C-alpha cells in the first residue's frame, strides 16, 4: 500500500450522507461473523473502527454484485461500476450522482478512506477475483487459486493490517509506520487462513458442487474433480473433511 503524503478526504460530501453511509456499513459488518470482523471489534479508535466498517462493507458490496446480477459476459459490468466508485472514494474524489450505487456507503468510504494510504490496488485484486467467478472460474493451476485468494482473502487482510497499525491524525488523516507496505505482511497469513477456511467448509462445497481447491493440489492427494461430481465419492470426501 502506498505510503506517500496523504490527502484529506474531500469536504464537499454531505455530513448527513456520510453518517447514513457509516450506519449502513456498521449494519452490514455486524451481520457478518468472519474472524476478521471479530478481530476488528477490538479496535478502540472510533476512526479506525469506522474505517474498517466502511472498507469491509464496500468489499461486500463489490462481492455481492455477482450474486445480484449472476454470471455471464454481462456480469462484469456491475463489478466494474462498484470498483470505479471504490477507487474514486479511496482517492477522496467520490461524488454521488443519480446512477450511483449505494451513494451513502461510498460517501462514508470517501470520508474514512480517502484520507488514508490504503490506495486502490487491494480493491482491484478483489474485483479481479470476483470477475473470475463471473467467468466461471476453473482452479486448474496453483496460479488460478492465487488470483482468487489474493482478492478473496489477502486484500481484506491487507486493508485490516493497515488500519490496525496506522496512526490517526487530524481530519482522519492516517499514516502507516510499518517498515514495509501492509501487503507484505498480509500475504502468507491470509493465504493460510483462506486454506483453513476452505477445508472447514469443504463438506458444504462438496454438497453444492462449488469448486474451491485447484486441480494440481487435488491430484497430489489422489483426488480429482469427480469428488464434486459423483455423489458416492463426494460423500467420502465430505466425511474426511469433518472436524
Tags for this model:
disordered N terminus; 243 residues; mainly alpha; two-stranded antiparallel ribbon; 12 helices; Farnesyl Diphosphate Synthase; 64% helix
Structural class: mainly alpha
The CATH architecture: Orthogonal Bundle
Which whole number gives the mean pLDDT?
Answer: 78
Radius of gyration: 19 Å
The H-level CATH homologous superfamily, spelled out, is Farnesyl Diphosphate Synthase
Indicate the multimeric state.
single chain
Overall morphology:
globular
Strand percentage: under 5%
- Count every beta strand, where a strand is a DSSP E run of 2 or more residues: 2
Helical percentage: 55-70%
Q: If you consult CATH, what is the topology?
A: Farnesyl Diphosphate Synthase
Terminal residue distance: 36 Å
Strand count, sense and barrel status of the largest sheet are: 2 strands, antiparallel
Q: What series of H and E elements makes up the topology?
A: HHHHHHHEEHHHHH
Amino acid at each position: 500500500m502506498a505510503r506517500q503524503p496523504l490527502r484529506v478526504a474531500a469536504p464537499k460530501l454531505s455530513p448527513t450522507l456520510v453518517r447514513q453511509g457509516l450506519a449502513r456499513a456498521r449494519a452490514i459488518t455486524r451481520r457478518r461473523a468472519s474472524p476478521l470482523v471479530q478481530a476488528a471489534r477490538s479496535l478502540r479508535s472510533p476512526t479506525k473502527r469506522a474505517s474498517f466498517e466502511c472498507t469491509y462493507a464496500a468489499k461486500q458490496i463489490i462481492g455481492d454484485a455477482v450474486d445480484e446480477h449472476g454470471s455471464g459476459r454481462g456480469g462484469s459490468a456491475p463489478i466494474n461500476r462498484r470498483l470505479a466508485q471504490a477507487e474514486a472514494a479511496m482517492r477522496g474524489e467520490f461524488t454521488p450522482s443519480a446512477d450511483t450505487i449505494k451513494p451513502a456507503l461510498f460517501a462514508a468510504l470517501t470520508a474514512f478512506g480517502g484520507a488514508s494510504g490504503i490506495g486502490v490496488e487491494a480493491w482491484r485484486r478483489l474485483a479481479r477475483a470476483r470477475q473470475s467467478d463471473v467467468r466461471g472460474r476453473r482452479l486448474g493451476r496453483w496460479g488460478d487459486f492465487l488470483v482468487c485468494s489474493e482478492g478473496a482473502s489477502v486484500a481484506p487482510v491487507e486493508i485490516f493490517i493497515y488500519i490496525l497499525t496506522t496512526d490517526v491524525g487530524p481530519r482522519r488523516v492516517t499514516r502507516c509506520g510499518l517498515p514495509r507496505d501492509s501487503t507484505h505482511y498480509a500475504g502468507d497469513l491470509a493465504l493460510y487462513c483462506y486454506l483453513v477456511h476452505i477445508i472447514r467448509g469443504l463438506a458444504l462445497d462438496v454438497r453444492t458442487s462449488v469448486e474451491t481447491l485447484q486441480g494440481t493440489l487435488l491430484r497430489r492427494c489422489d483426488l480429482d474433480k469427480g469428488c464434486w461430481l459423483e455423489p458416492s465419492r463426494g460423500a467420502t470426501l465430505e466425511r474426511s473433511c469433518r472436524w
